[in-house]
């Protein structure tokens, strides 16, 4: 596998943001589909060794994705994404939160706004993700939870998944 693909993980503690730039060896439509279709997300989303299952997904403005990341021992970590704006194969914005199996948003764990942009780089695609937290405390909580390693592992899984498409 090609290992010189762009991967930037930048933390800005003044703006309470994480910016991730990631290059993929695939055209933009395919990467867009991998990010926006539950049948594809369930095959790569989440860090190793977790698996992902979608409970419900409605990819449209004001729609949602309700999913669980599952450890090999069966422990489930539920998430809820609410889609705010969508411009197909260019970008979407969303609110991302931890939830329970019923879709009730956690009050104890940070929520964030995500802006995910897809651009061409020759035959490849760059996905730029800007994640904005309400406070420095929320940002630091997510970093301590392993966000950088989790994103690296998750995006490497997408690389592997793309090889089999």
From TrEMBL:
Activator of Hsp90 ATPase homologue 1/2-like C-terminal domain mapped to chain residues: 26-162
Species per Swiss-Prot/TrEMBL record: Flavobacterium sediminilitoris
Name assigned to this protein: SRPBCC domain-containing protein
Signal peptide: none
UniProt record similarity statement: Belongs to the AHA1 family.
InterPro entries attached to this UniProt entry: ASHA1/2-like_C, START-like_dom_sf
């Amino acid at each position: 596998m090609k290992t010189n693909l762009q991967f930037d993980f930048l933390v800005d503690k003044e703006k309470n943001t994480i910016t991730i730039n990631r290059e993929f060896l695939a055209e933009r439509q395919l990467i867009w589909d991998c990010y926006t279709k539950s049948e594809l997300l369930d095959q790569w989303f989440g860090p190793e060794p977790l698996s992902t299952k979608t409970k419900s997904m409605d990819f449209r403005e004001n729609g949602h994705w309700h999913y669980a990341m599952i450890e090999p021992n069966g422990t489930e970590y539920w998430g809820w994404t609410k889609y705010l704006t969508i411009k197909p194969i260019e970008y979407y914005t969303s609110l991302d939160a931890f939830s329970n199996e019923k879709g009730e948003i956690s009050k104890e764990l940070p929520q964030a706004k995500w802006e995910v942009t897809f651009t061409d780089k020759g035959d490849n695609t760059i996905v730029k993700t800007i994640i904005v937290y309400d406070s420095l405390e929320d940002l630091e909580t997510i970093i301590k939870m392993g966000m950088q390693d989790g994103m690296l592992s998750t995006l490497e899984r997408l690389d592997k998944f793309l090889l089999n498409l």
